[in-house]
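Ticket #4471: structure output looks truncated?

Reporter: J.K.
Steps to reproduce: submitted the chain below (89 residues) through the standard prediction queue, then opened the result file.
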Amino acid sequence: MRRKWDAKTKAKIVLEGLMGGCVNDLCRTHELRPGQYYKWRGHFLDNCHKIFERLPGTQSESELAAENEELKKLVGELTLELTSGKPMR
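Returned output as attached by the reporter:
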């Protein structure tokens, strides 16, 4: 039966090997074939630069927090308008 490996576990195993761990010992410990390790390592090294790329359209946490506060303020104003029957603006 084939094992399913989650991405975090794969990354952890690959990083252990990249930090100087003996690949054969690492594979034995995790019951993994060395060929599979090297496949994961190749994929990891080919794609590791993507972690530093910012996806178009993504917002930073501070931008999201500011937008969230603005939306809360707007909801509050609209709620007051609905309950009082008078426009706030």
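Triage note (M.O.): checked the attachment and the full token line is present. The chain has one domain: 7-52+64-84.
Status: closed, working as intended.
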